[in-house]
Amino acid sequence: MSTKSTPAARRYAVREIFPTLQGEGAQAGSPAVFLRFAGCNLGYAVCPWCDTDWAKADFTGSASEVVERARAAADDAFGGVPDGLLLVATGGEPSLQLDPPLADALRAEGFRIAMETNGSREIVRRTVDWLTVSPKQPEYVQREGDELKIVYTGRAAPGITPDVESVRALAAGTRFDHYFLQPVDIPEEGGPNYQETLRAVHALGPPWRLSVQTHKVIGIP
Ligand code: SF4
User: Fold this and answer.
1) Does the N-terminal or the C-terminal CB of the chain have fewer CB atoms within 10 Å?
2) Residue in 15, 53, 54 to alter for ligand 1 test, most ligand atoms within 8 A of Cβ
């Protein structure tokens, strides 16, 4: 008789799962289910203006439980999972948890998987169908993907992008299909620094584009 024990199935710490539209970047306007994992390897000390609550898990469950909740969210909003419905894996830092077994289970349900990572960890590309990298440190390792989305702090907040030159330095040598600059949103300071970011986009020129957080504009999660 074998004495080997079966490894316990992985459990995932999830902050929230909800249906909405992708608000940002090249897929803005696409119906989506957001899977927000708990936990981040950088944290609020690095990004004091972080606009997401990722610290505490709302539930911890197996891959099939996560898929079940994602399917329920899609059922509620879209009457099911239309083939290719976007599943946006975010956080916190989703690469700490999204792994091939969970990705396979989500795809089997019909989801197309997008990930929004801070780029500090190398991404196993077969786990995602669309990769957004949004670096929060000058040095980051994931330097290719579908879109690079840089939060522009300018003079509005501390951060790694005080000016156009810092944006150019962050993007140097990268390979992405889309390049976005997105205003930092600090409600206490009057909201997004649109004008400052627009000036930076003009100065950068193509292929840079402005990314607006349209979900906030239209008042959805
Ligand atoms: S890396 Fe992203 S989720 Fe983590 S603290 Fe920074 S902005 Fe927030």
Assistant:
1) N
2) 54
